[in-house]
Amino acid sequence: MPKIQMVDLQRQYHKIRREIDRSVKDVLVSAQFINGPKVKEFEANLADYLGSKHVIPCGNGTDALQIAMMSLGLKPGDEVIVPSFTYVATVEVAALLGLNPVMVDVDKNTFNLTAEIVEQAINVHTRAIVPVHLFGQSADMEPLMKLAEKYNLQIIEDNAQSVGTEYTFSDGTKKKTGNIGNIGCISFYPSKNLGAYGDAGAITTQNDELADKIRRIANHGQSEKYHHKYIGLNSRLDAIQAAILDVKLKYLDKYVAARQTVADYYDKAFADIHLLQIPERLPQSTHVFHQYTLIVKEGHRDTLKNFLHERGIPSMIYYPIPLNEQEAFKGRGRKVGDLPVTKSLCASVLSLPIHTEMTDDQLEYIVETVQAYFKDNS
Description:
46% of the residues are buried. This protein has an eight-stranded mixed sheet, sandwiched between helices. A three-stranded antiparallel sheet has the order 12-13-15. It is 39% helix and 15% strand. α1 packs across α8 (239-249), α3 packs across α7 (208-217) and α9 packs parallel to α12. The longest helix is centred in the first third of the chain and has 22 residues, at 9-30. It contains twelve helices and 15 strands. It has two domains: 9-103 and 112-249, Type I PLP-dependent aspartate aminotransferase-like (Major domain) (Aspartate Aminotransferase, domain 2), CATH 3.40.640.10; 252-377, Aspartate Aminotransferase, domain 1.
């Protein structure tokens, strides 16, 4: 049995190495490393896959969030509503721009923002909402969109973990995440479902004027060399990463299906363990399972994690500390309420290995080990 890993990028690469190597070699031979044909090719193919009118590649997912906020004209002191239970980048970029991050709680089952939670945080200073489609499942976007319309707010979708997730509206309309709000932000960090071999990101929008502004901001605020309309960043997707991503994009649906198969296996195995809560699946959203995250009840999380580690099974805690309790954000922005769900999740969530190369032997071993722990500790 191969060594169990949270993500096995080596084995994934070996399956498509000829295509990857050929695509990278094409870039090396062309010597067009910045904004070359491979970048344009990937941009067009990703837009087609996502159903996005505009895809603007950039340096990484954090840059995508920062550029999105800059493009919407948010000013220092403006409030941006964000979940406290997420990765730091979502709040970090707001703070960097002098905005006030308003950290709120999340739904206890989906780990995502809801319209009910967000509305309690809205005041005269609120300008934007950043729903994070956490772990591979969409936030419930239709109520959030209605809320944004009611209060004239912008929505920036943090789509870093959910590329390919599909959301269904009450009228039957389907959209992939990142195409619902004003702007969507993607990370192609190597461990993501669609991962580069280094840092990479992209921004999506359906708005022509926004797309033009985003494209300029990502390139020093210019569309024509030496003519700078906006304050911008140097955040461009290099052609080698685009070449890699364009190959892997062809396999993304297959990768998602493999992850969903693993998740189904886990769900069935753990459904009757009363000390575990398996991931909630919203009927209006598909789940691409960037992570498979359990809630481990009654204080068993850390002892289960140690039990797994001793038997060669990795696991991860996403996320151990609420963002509102991080030292970096003391005195910045505000929080709404005591965030009891966030506190509880930080003390109880545990993510198990899930990736495209998992074998039946690995899955059986992981499941049997988890079951053995609870047999002895129920």
